[in-house]
Amino acid sequence: MRMTPNHISFERLAEMAEGRFTAAAGQPETAHLADCRRCADELARLERTIQLMRADTSTDAPRDVLSQTVQMFRARFPRREAASLVKRVMAALTFDSAQLAPAFGVRSGAQTAEARQLLFSAGETDVDLRLASGDSGWTISGQILGECEGGRVEIESVAGGAAAGGEGARADLNELCEFTLPPVPSGSYKLRLHINDMEVEVPELQLR
Amino acid sequence: MERSDAELIEGCRRGEEAAWEALVARYQRLIYAIPRRAGLDEDRAAEVFQDVFATLLESLSNISQPERLQAWLVTTAKRKSWRLIRRESSTRSFSTDDETQETEMSNLADSALLPDEAMRQLEEQHLVRLSLAELDERCRTLLTILFYSTDPVPYSEIAARLGTSEGSIGPTRARCLRKLQTVLQQKGL
Q1: Cβ of residue B143 closer than 8 Å to a chain A Cβ
Q2: Which is nearest to A141 in space by CA: A91, A184, A181, A186?
Q3: Is B34 within 8 Å of B79 (Cβ atoms)?
Q4: Position A162 pLDDT exceeds 80
Q5: Contact at CB, B147 and A54, closer than 8 angstroms
Q6: Of A10, A74, A81, which is closest to B174 when you measure between CB atoms?
Q7: What secondary structure does DSSP assign to A120-172, as a single string?
Q8: What is d(CA B143, CA B180) in angstroms, rounded to the nearest whole number?
Q9: Which chain B residues are Cβ-neighbours of A63 within 8 angstroms?
Q10: Greatest C-alpha distance within chain B
């Protein structure tokens, strides 16, 4: 084993601390340790660490005890407290462009090809939705009207199956509180908007 | 990056269950070891353990020095252990009214069953385990096999488990021990 010019190598010190190598009288390590405080301290620290690990007979607390201890917290801070901070509001439909009688001279067919506009009201917040069908399915876009500091929108198939790729679709609101969801196939959907401390639910949307 | 005790306490105060779970995970072994070291059986040790964490939960808003949480937990576990020992001993000796005897017994339990040196060793072992957990997986595995196994594990088996040669175990062991020493030094040991 090579030693550094002035000190015993860490590897050798580790062997000594583990008891794999004992420096006998007359060996260079013995003489060095007697004179070098740094190496002697390093050896003592290593010996202490190894002794602590070898003497550690502690065990984990039983799993059921740990589980009960974690549950104590739920009893003290019930989850519903956090949930209650979010206000859930059901949005009411106030306007639907599909309900309008076709204007004079405008064919009804032309209107359905354009985006359908829906306006929902939820307290002091209004939601402007645009539904447009295309080759890849229905695209829902919209904007939050009223106080809004960002948030996100989620859509979920009412039939229980998730929309758009099997896991539901979601989109974040941009700085103008607008959003565009990835296209979804025809069907019935529920839309949830998470804005401020409020969750606004838009009841069943029929995309056909 | 591991959250400090103070950050976890703050998280608990805000109702974060994950912060509580992290605190329990961090200290469970140390706190369970204290009543066991005092000679209590598994059921009694579990009683002390839950009592300590229940007290912590109730005291969350009153802990003024969250950075000294470990000392608080250790002292609480120690007191609850010898109180339980005292209570059971008193019941057995039919002398619950004898205040002097109770005091003597508690002092005896405190100093004889949980001497300062044993407590210091438990806390240092806790620190070593925490430091070990911060090392990379290879070092963690190697040092655990080498120093926490009850029976010596042959080098051939260690090499197989690490997917390395027997010859590289020595240098790897030294490298891992050096890393462990560095972390321990940062933690004040």
Answers
A1: yes
A2: A181
A3: no
A4: no
A5: yes
A6: A10
A7: EEETTEEEEEEEEEETTEEEEEEEEESS---EEEEEEETTSSPSTTTT-EEEE
A8: 9
A9: none
A10: 67
Contacts of A46 (CB under 8 A, 6+ apart): A13, A14, A16, A17, B177, B181
Nearest to A60 among B20, B28, B174 (CB): B28
A87, A125 contact by CB (below 8 A): no
> pLDDT (tens digit, 9 = 90+) per residue, A61-79?
999 999 999 999 988 887 6
Long-range contacts of B55-62 (CB under 8 A, 24+ apart): B55/B80, B56/B23, B57/A72, B57/A73, B57/A76, B57/B12, B57/B20, B60/B9, B60/B12, B60/B13, B61/B13
Chain A partners of B177 at a C-beta cutoff of 8 Å? 10, 14, 46, 49-50
Q: Tell me if B28 and A58 make a contact (CB, 8 A cut-off).
A: no
- Which amino acid is residue B179, in one-letter code? K
pLDDT over 90, % of chain B: 66
pLDDT 10s digits, B59-116: 998 888 999 999 999 999 999 998 999 888 776 665 445 555 555 555 555 556 778 8
Q: Which of residues 69-98 of A touch B (CB under 8 A)?
A: 69-70, 72-74, 76-77, 79, 81-82
* Residue-wise pLDDT tens digits, A84-118: 456 777 888 888 888 765 544 344 444 445 788 98
DSSP A184: B
3-class state of residue A4 by DSSP: coil
Looking at residue A107, what is its pLDDT? 44
